[in-house]
Amino acid sequence: MTDAEGRFTISGLSSRLFDGDDPHRVVMAISSPGLPYLPAVVTSKRDSDTLIESVRGIPCRLRLADEPGQPVAAKVTYRDVQPNPHLPRVPHLYESSGPMSLAAHRGGRIDEGLVFPGPGAVLVRMPPRASSGPASVNPKAFFAPGRTDWTDLERRTSYGTSETLSSGQGQIKQHEYAAIVLVNPPKDPKPLELSATVVKD
Known about the structure:
four-stranded mixed β-sheet; 12 strands; mainly beta; four-stranded antiparallel β-sheet
């Protein structure tokens, strides 16, 4: 537990963790699902104070329901969509192919998570045995409406296609999700209120 200023101590670690030529160890701080913070990775030295700074995102609330309006239990995550010049550069973040954040289910139809300024996607994945139709969005029409002068490279890589989304962590296959909400918030906006409907297959 932290104190009022957010300070805490990790005790009980074996001194052998810091033996050898390099007395430093990597520490990762991961926020709980639903909190608007990215994971933070720092290098710590034995018996010294270490400052862990987690980048804060934009709080996001997603109202998720099926076609009759009933609540849906699903895994809700956020991924960046590239190009995104506003995305914070966080060491080690892009070494993983996983989502940037996992939303927390708050009861009823509400899932709370985070997004970041610039192009991104809130992704809804249903449980393995749930029956739902695949998502399909047009990222170029959303992020660059009216643009037609795409180069061959941009046509393949910028934002994605009707089948994939381009992310800093790799391609996102749209058919693996039951719903996708594209977002493009400005810097420092108010919390986002989003909604999505899961359609039966």
